[in-house]
Amino acid sequence: MKKRKIINLIIMSFSTVAALTGLIFLFWILWVLLSKGLDAMNIKIFILDTAPPGREGGLRNALVGQLLLVSVASLIGIPLGIFAGTYLSEYGGNSKFSNFLRDISDIMMSAPSIVIGAFVYAILVAPVGHFSGWAGAVALAIMMIPIVLRTTDDMLSLVSQQLREAAYALGAPKYKVIMQVVYRGAKVGMITGILLSIARIAGETAPLLFTSFNNNFYTTNLNEAMASLTVTMFNFATSPYEDWIKLGWAAAFILGAFVLFVNIIGRMIIKKKVK
Amino acid sequence: MRKALDFLFKHIALFSAISILIVLIAIFAILFKEALPAINAFGWKFLVNTRWAPNMDIFGGFPAIYGSIMSTLIAMLIATPMAIGVAIFLTEIAHAKLKGPVGTAIEMLAAIPSIIYGMWGLFFFAPYIREWFGGNGLGLLTAGIVLAIMILPFMAAITRDSMNTIPDVLKESAYALGATKWDVVKDVVIPFAKAGIIGSIILALGRAIGETMAVTFVMGNAHKIPKHLTDPATSIPVTLANEFTEADSDLYYSSLFYLALILFVISFIVIAFAKFYFLRKVRAAK
Prior knowledge:
The complex is a heterodimer. By secondary structure, chain A is mainly α. Chain A is built from eleven helices and no strands. Chain A has helices at 3-40, 44-47, 60-92, 96-110, 113-125, 133-158, 161-169, 174-202, 206-209, 229-237, 242-274. In chain A, 51% of the residues are buried. Chain B is mainly alpha-helical. Chain B contains eleven helices and two strands. Chain B has helices at residues 2-42, 62-93, 96-111, 114-133, 140-163, 168-176, 181-210, 213-216, 236-243, 250-278, 280-285; strands at 52-53, 58-59. In chain B, strand 1 (52-53) and strand 2 (58-59) form a beta hairpin. At the A-B interface, helix 1, helix 3, helix 4, helix 5 and helix 6 of A face helix 1, helix 2, helix 3, helix 4 and helix 5 of B.
């Protein structure tokens, strides 16, 4: 065989092995999540709160806390992200200012989440004197805005210009054209982007470590420290107690299942739309 | 009335768009303000001082900076060739029926929350490292490998996208001349997609250097320069995650913000460089 054919074979084998390795790790991690998680699942997880080691406990406070934190973050992040994306696509277009804001938002999207946690600590926790659900939600919202912004921007730009012109020709004002024609045309893509951004922040731990912190008791008061699935996972998994570690895996399973489920749904919606 | 609503809508949108800039500036300003006492106390020496002794109010950032750089370096050395390999597999080798599912599966790896990588790394992967390389399983090497697995799908996806921007005609004409797949990849695909590939590498580097949860579990959290890759170490995000709520003196608190500021500046430069310099073309083609 010629030398270049041998080299070709080596590189192509390496590429195939690389892809296989990636798949092996994916299935290994999924298998761990599934076996450890299902093993730890039972009904008590949903009705009992976290408890000191040795006592029977569940994850009710963490689940409720997580739900609240993500919901409040969404209530702040989604409208801001949509409006910002709308501005870039409908008003700014390809102006220098818009492209500058797009770049800024790309940078924010990749900013280390723990730094955002430290920032929110400095503005919302330290001055108030205690951890709070609000601080956690704000930290998550800051991570969410750039994601929603970029998907909204991209999706709105796909809506055909004729559609807008047709609406203008009927005498509709710009805000009405945007809300009733452009949003409607981009609805599916926007919803997918929002879903994916929710999945993304739901898995975040670092920005919550020193904002919402943790709470062993059930609370719906956003002015207090609040438990979340991810911080509970972190604390429990690094603890020396068997039953805590087990609950940590249950939390990992619930979170992993949610994130993967939303991602698959999001992909299916987009695929259908494109076809 | 109509005009007022139009005006209102536009300006709410404008304000929302600008809010992202305000947040970015605010992060810089606040981190700097909180870090100022430590900056005044230690100055630039903070970057090279290796001693971290909170009980004596001595803080040097070098062990954390070193850990961040080393774990990221290990991750990049492993992940870069693999990601390019995966991208070659997805664009050149895989059968059309395989491309979709394998591509989706690899992207699913990117969707898994990083804390799950951390837990898996601690309980299932670290024992192998202990067995194969010695040490207690926690340290730079384990952190580097876990990071590599975490950034691999991310890098592979961007690399694949940039490889997909090549017009088929270019590749076909090379094949028509009798080129092997590797010839085509080496002489047509990689030169064409170079900017995108380099961009994805730098962007992944930015992600790896700021990643917290995947490494906090497996780093071992020791504030010293490790002698071996298998010794426990620390990194900037790991230090922040473990010690932020414990900081009991003003200088301790401020030193942690100094570390956060360093991390933010590094990742800002890295991400901006990748985005502005290399990834423009990929984005435009998409």
